[in-house]
Automatic annotation (TrEMBL):
Residues 7-157 form the NADPH-dependent FMN reductase-like domain. SUPFAM superfamilies: Flavoproteins (SSF52218). Gene3D superfamilies: 3.40.50.360. It comes from the Bacteria. This is Flavodoxin family protein.
Length: 207
C-alpha cells in the first residue's frame, strides 16, 4: 500500500453533541467504508465549535476555525455531511464553505496553488424532502472552486418521503441503495486521493 491516507468528516447538523444526528450517522458510515480501504479519520460537529463568520483564515479572538483548518489541511479526504433545511445545506455547513474561501489567498510559493489542491472532497446529505442533488451541487461547486477534487459518484444521500417525519437515524436498517452508494463513494475517493498523493497537480503557470 502507498502512503496512508486520512479523512476528516465535518458534520453540519444544527444539533450539538450529544444529540443524535442523521447527518453524523451517514458521515460515520462514509468513514467506516473509507476505513475498509485503510483510511483513518475523525469526525467533527461544526455546531460544537465557535466558528466566526468571515472569509479569512483567522477571524480573531475566540475563533475556532484555525484549529479545525489545521485538521482539514492535514487530511487527504474531506467529507462534508450536511442535513437539508429549507431546501438548502445547513447554515453551519455554509459557514465552513465560506471560511474555505480564504484558501485562495494561501498559495504555496513554489507551486502557486492553494493548500487544498490535491485533496479530495465528498458529500453526505440527509433530509426529509427532495433536495440532495441541489445541495450536493452547491457543495461541490464551492469545494471545487477552492481546489478540492470531486471523484466520480462523490455524494451519498438519503431523503425521506415528502410531508413525512421519518429521520435517517430512525430507520431500522440502512437502505441497500444508500449502503451501495456509500461504498462506491469511499472506493472512488480513496482511488483519487491515492493518485493525487503520488502525482500532484502541476504548478500554476505564470502569466
Amino acid at each position: 500500500m502507498t502512503d496512508a491516507l486520512t479523512a476528516l468528516v465535518l458534520v453540519g447538523t444544527l444539533r450539538p453533541t450529544p444529540s443524535e444526528s442523521s447527518s453524523e450517522l451517514l458521515g460515520r458510515q462514509v468513514l467506516g467504508d473509507l476505513r475498509s480501504h485503510g483510511v483513518e479519520g475523525s469526525v467533527v460537529r461544526l455546531v460544537d465549535h465557535d466558528i466566526k463568520p468571515g472569509v479569512e483564515v483567522d477571524m480573531g479572538d475566540g475563533d475556532a476555525w484555525p484549529a479545525l483548518r489545521r485538521q482539514l489541511l492535514a487530511a487527504d479526504i474531506l467529507v462534508l455531511a450536511t442535513p437539508i433545511w429549507m431546501g438548502q445545506l445547513s447554515s453551519v455547513s455554509k459557514r465552513a464553505l465560506e471560511r474555505l474561501d480564504a484558501e485562495l489567498s494561501e498559495t504555496d510559493e513554489a507551486t502557486g496553488l492553494p493548500p487544498t489542491y490535491g485533496k479530495v472532497a465528498v458529500a453526505a446529505v440527509v433530509g426529509n424532502e427532495d433536495g440532495a442533488h441541489s445541495v450536493s451541487a452547491d457543495v461541490f461547486q464551492a469545494l471545487n472552486d477552492v481546489g478540492f477534487t470531486i471523484p466520480a459518484g462523490g455524494v451519498t444521500y438519503w431523503v425521506g418521503r415528502a410531508m413525512e417525519g421519518v429521520d435517517y437515524k430512525d430507520l431500522d436498517e440502512t437502505p441497500e441503495a444508500v449502503a451501495s452508494t456509500t461504498a462506491t463513494l469511499a472506493a472512488n475517493a480513496v482511488h483519487v486521493a491515492r493518485f493525487l498523493k503520488s502525482s500532484p497537480y502541476p504548478p500554476k503557470e505564470s502569466s
